[in-house]
# Entry
Amino acid sequence: MENYHVFKFGGASVKDADAIKNLSNIINKRLQNQMIIIISAIGKTTNALEEILNLKLQGLEYTTNMVALRQIHLDICGELFEKEAPVFAWIDNLFTQLSRQMEKNLAKENYDEFYDQVVGVGELLSTRIVQEYLCQQQLFCIWQDARELIRTNDDFRFAKVDWEITQANCKKLLLSNSSQFPIVTQGFIGREAKGRTTTLGREGSDFTAAILATCVKAKSVTIWKDVEGVLNADPKRFANTIRFEQLDYREAAELTYYGASVIHPKTIKPLANAQIPLFVKSFLNPEAPGTAIGNFDVQHATPVIVIKEKQILVTFRVMDFTFIEESHIHQVYRVLEKLKLKVNLLQISAITLSICIDHELFKLERLMQELRHFFEIRYNENLLLITVKNKEMNTIDGILKGREVLLEQATRTTFQVVTKA
# Structure
């Protein structure tokens, strides 16, 4: 079982026909029977599906967006396949199913469940196209519905994995098939006990790779990105970035906690527990070394800059001029847990408690409804949370120049600041 290799390709690596051809070349040079290939939705498909949902929720016309999204996928197929290829009918059928789902009632109360039934379609589309193209190139492989593998609870949009059932499913469906042919399957999606589609959290395809790798005791996981590995900053924002050749599991996990987008936060833990190495490589330059993540005795002093967008800073002030106590913290955190909201930064003063959270549709409104009788609540939206790990004053001064700071916090090694975008 330890001979399995897991490859995960993100949306940018399948964004158009040329990208899919490039993926095929990468697979061709590394093809093994015991291989699991995980594919994200094409390009910005997930964003497009979210926008379709938002239009429906507002009672606005959304069919134009659906037609445009369907055409994007058909155009890609038009460059890859002959007109009579079965993939065209398969895409039409999936969009017909999507249209039927969109005709159902959507409200705030059922948004999370509705979201998962709609947004998970993106991965079903991309994997069918990729699998059909690989087979056309004589790289024969099997299409596998990830929902038959990954069992979760019904925490829609943030589903938790039932590891026991998932492992049993993987042994039954993967180990028997992938000894003969590689498997192509979806990231991001699973299924709960009643058969409804669930998702593992935004950008959760990396986590899918870790789940399946753990269940089959894979030899390695490789995540293919549009960057040359794990860098000390986003190259789209900062010049002269530095690539890490190696990262220890713990350091990689810390970076994902702060919001480093190159790896999903839940990815590292199962791989570290199973001692499965993770490689981050560039699909634009596949022969480059990338970054290896594992049990490495390396300590990096290079400042690492991580920026999280679409942040909300919420401040709770006690109403009776008493000081913030542990009971107040528990009160706020109970509601945060109920709403499945993760705190990215916490700061406590004498009479206020401030938290920085991701923007989640309806969640701020619900948070305030639950706690408005106990606290005076203020908030700012559309903010940036900037983290500097291995802090260095010149780096921090450069980041803060010209920015309006709403909150800042420092430890011995890390500096964090919330600023206006």
Observations:
- The domain at 5-225 is CATH 3.40.1160.10 (Carbamate kinase).
- The CA atoms of residues 213 and 293 lie 15 Å apart.
- The chain has a mean pLDDT of 94.
